[in-house]
User: Fold this.
Amino acid sequence: MSFIHKLQNSCQKNKSYLCVGLDPDPRLMPPDTNTKEFILRIVESTSDLVCAYKINFAFFEAMGESGFQNLKYARDSIPGNIPVIADAKRADIGNTSRGYAEAIFGIMGFDAVTVNPYMGYDSILPFISYTDRGVFVLCRTSNPGASDFQDLCATNGDQTLPLYQMVSIKAREWNQHGNIGLVVGATWPEEIKIIRKQNPEMPLLIPGVGAQGGCIDLVSKYAIGPDGKMGIINSSRSIIHASAGKYYDKAARSKAEELRNQINLYRR
Amino acid sequence: MSFIHKLQNSCQKNKSYLCVGLDPDPRLMPPDTNTKEFILRIVESTSDLVCAYKINFAFFEAMGESGFQNLKYARDSIPGNIPVIADAKRADIGNTSRGYAEAIFGIMGFDAVTVNPYMGYDSILPFISYTDRGVFVLCRTSNPGASDFQDLCATNGDQTLPLYQMVSIKAREWNQHGNIGLVVGATWPEEIKIIRKQNPEMPLLIPGVGAQGGCIDLVSKYAIGPDGKMGIINSSRSIIHASAGKYYDKAARSKAEELRNQINLYRR
Assistant:
């Protein structure tokens, strides 16, 4: 089954556009909890509330030698019907991107990946060549520095638009297998509106609600809307580290349920 | 000692601007050779000929579970006086980039890293905050798709320039610790000339000679020149996979020596 179908199914089954980011931060975890146990309890307590999980590689790479095993464990702990996005933000020249794609899709079995567009088409091609997997191209990111380059007015001779819109347009051109999506930060609702207009059918992965302060109401309205377009709204810290107490899994569930319901207000 | 000083010392000691890329490709390695032995023999046969080594993470991540150990082994097999660049092309929002920086600089002890500028200043700050390490920002990459976005004419209100030059200018602004360099592909000598003019003192990391076809003569002239500026010219496949025979290490040495000498013709 393709990534998009898997995602549509999990959205419907769980009535959810919420993606939970599994980014375990040892400083925020309950004392004396090991990473595997932590992840398993978070997944078990939230898997009927989400449309997808997103796993950020940096948090695992920072664990050193145990990182790969913990990452693989996290990926494998997620029920088979829920798609899992590798938030790795990779991209390199062709033969190198092939190595990253093999690691993420081939060896670790992720359903989708985030990639950086700066190096252009051939740096992303090895990922989109896995036609049953999803590829989310960074477009307008949630962080303050996003504006340094993504907002520069760029011209290709025909059109003059902010760079992030050039990326959005190129992504549409590159989407011959129908497996490309875009990453747009929840902190920029107006940009989400524009990108959604440019790409009505593309899945948008939207990080930045919760700790980063994105506005759920506007984001849901623009990215998902009354007809339920594929807007996947991610929250990491505000869910998985909702509590550092004994019942952190229950706290995570409660926060996830609240967010899911808040997003669903915009579905008619 | 800072990265820049370490690099200057190794350039002088080995009379070299050559960087060897340790990107072991199992399909190109001699049959029945294990990765650790392969890397050790390549390093032992070339370490008096190079100013630096560059290790591309994708080739190790594609090994799966043994990737981390092999990567650490490769990094640790390099003599302490030769700087080692992590070619990882990372960057993410602040708390995530901190994780990558901790993994690459803290845990694995690399001297420098390559980063992607698309997400802007705060995505790179966690790396440049390690003031004794080097940070090479992707500017004009060697691959064909580089032109998709890097060549778009961009304007910030004051100036209108190709995006890659905007990156080059921003990198100079961000360089308060003097530890930033730029990545410029050997396949674009005219762009190297421009970037070198914009940043006379910055180290340039230049991949793309050898298998990718960059012209060593022009690259050496523009990036290094008669006064010996810090242009670090990388070759990977054409050196380490010069032969798949029994004496692959000798073949690598011979190829490395040839390249080093060809580059040095432009030093007066």
